[in-house]
Design goal:
alpha/beta; 15 helices; 44% helix
């Protein structure tokens, strides 16, 4: 008897909704970019609809909204103009939905899920919601919403309703699965963990042949060649723990004056420069501002250790995967998401304790051999558990499940 041929994997037309200024150099956009890239590698057709601002990405098909005539500049995060941005995004999505007739809508963030849920039901297209943190939790983190104010409960109910629109929800961490079940009642088998991942060929450890480039980049940034470097790459904001990181730096440089902090990111650079000066550590901290994603491995290669001071309890922490892929030993506040990624090879401090974070960094900097072993294990962990190819295969299985149930 001849063996029956296996059916070819189904290829999907995917309409991806990105309610942000895609592409920008921060975690949410990186996830969108890498998911779209790996889905295309698997043979799927992906169209991204997004706000009018953002950079083009080679190989990705992007359709943008019209600009707001009264507001042509905005930063990432919550904004009172978001409703207008999202109204335009809804119109752009509707046009793409009518023209492209997608098989699945893959929506990022709650605004995307609301748009995709409403329009998808009108056209009978299943919705996958890429949940990257609580909507109201993020608004509180950004100090855009008062948890004791009159708007909090109505917005919380809106978030609860949005979470019921998709046929499947994917999260970047197991902790997010717990949040959805505990706080929003989404424990009904629709929720799947697809963790943030990393391109470990692009983000790779520093090699001997990189020495000249590392030295030149250090010199261009004004970092003395003999200093040990603590690297941070991400958004600069209080919910990211940037102020606490500077306090930890002030503690550490008193004991280890040879240490230098390389803080890479935006948008609060001017504010945190001022804080560093007030703490008396301006000469021990270098702020780079925004670092393009394509340059991130080169800049991270300056680090001897890395740090993640994020204190938000609702969001992922994809920057950790970049640190891990570079084999950078990492200190972090002890949150469920940090534990999930770093496991036993992270060095942790109680959340919000700047002195303890300084002590965790001191441990890594003073025992170089043990720190290097931690870094090697972190890279091995990233290679084993957190590749985009693995994530793409998981997403395809979710699409297959929805397609089968939609027939």
């Amino acid at each position: 008897m001849s063996r029956q041929a296996m059916p070819a994997p189904r290829r999907y037309r995917v309409l991806m909704i990105a309610p942000t200024s895609f592409f920008s150099d921060y975690g949410c956009c990186v996830r969108i970019r890498e998911e779209a890239r790996v889905l295309q590698q698997l043979g799927h057709e992906v169209l991204i609809v997004t706000y009018y601002k953002g950079r083009e990405v080679a190989g990705l098909t992007i359709r943008r909204t019209l600009p707001l005539p009264w507001h042509t500049h905005y930063e990432v995060g919550a904004s009172r103009h978001k409703a207008a941005f999202d109204a335009l995004l809804g119109l752009t999505t509707l046009g793409a939905l009518l023209r492209r007739r997608p098989d699945v809508i893959h929506a990022h963030l709650h605004e995307g899920a609301l748009i995709g849920g409403v329009l998808g039901r009108l056209r009978g297209v299943p919705l996958v919601f890429d949940f990257q943190g609580s909507m109201t939790g993020e608004m509180v983190d950004h100090r855009f919403l008062n948890p004791n104010g009159v708007l909090y409960q109505p917005l919380r109910r809106l978030e609860w309703a949005i979470d019921r629109l998709p046929q499947a929800i994917i999260t970047s961490s197991r902790h997010a699965v717990d949040v959805l079940a505990r706080e929003f009642g989404c424990g009904d088998g629709r929720v799947f963990t697809v963790p943030d991942c990393v391109n470990a060929d692009f983000f790779r450890p520093r090699r001997p042949e990189d020495a000249a480039d590392v030295a030149a980049l250090k010199a261009s940034l004004g970092i003395p060649s003999d200093r040990q470097v603590v690297a941070y790459l991400g958004l600069l904001a209080e919910y990211q723990g940037t102020g606490l990181l500077l306090q930890a730096a002030a503690h550490l440089v008193q004991e280890m004056p040879e240490v230098h902090f390389l803080i890479m990111g935006y948008p609060g650079e001017a504010l945190y420069r001022q804080q560093a000066a007030q703490l008396g550590i301006a000469d021990r901290v270098t702020f780079t501002g925004k670092v393009p994603y394509d340059e991130a491995p080169r800049y991270l290669a300056l680090g001897d250790v890395a740090v993640s001071p994020k204190i938000s309890a609702t969001e992922g922490s994809g920057k950790l995967l970049n640190y891990m892929a570079l084999a950078l030993p990492t200190a972090a506040f002890d949150t469920p998401v940090h534990r999930e990624y770093l496991g036993e090879d992270g060095v942790y401090a109680p959340v919000g304790d700047a002195a303890a974070l300084a002590a965790a960094l001191r441990q890594l900097l003073t025992d170089g051999h043990a720190a290097a072993e931690r870094g090697a294990r972190l890279r091995a962990r990233a290679l084993a558990k957190y590749t985009w190819e693995q994530a793409g295969a998981q997403i395809q299985r979710i699409y297959d499940r929805l397609w089968a149930g939609n027939q």
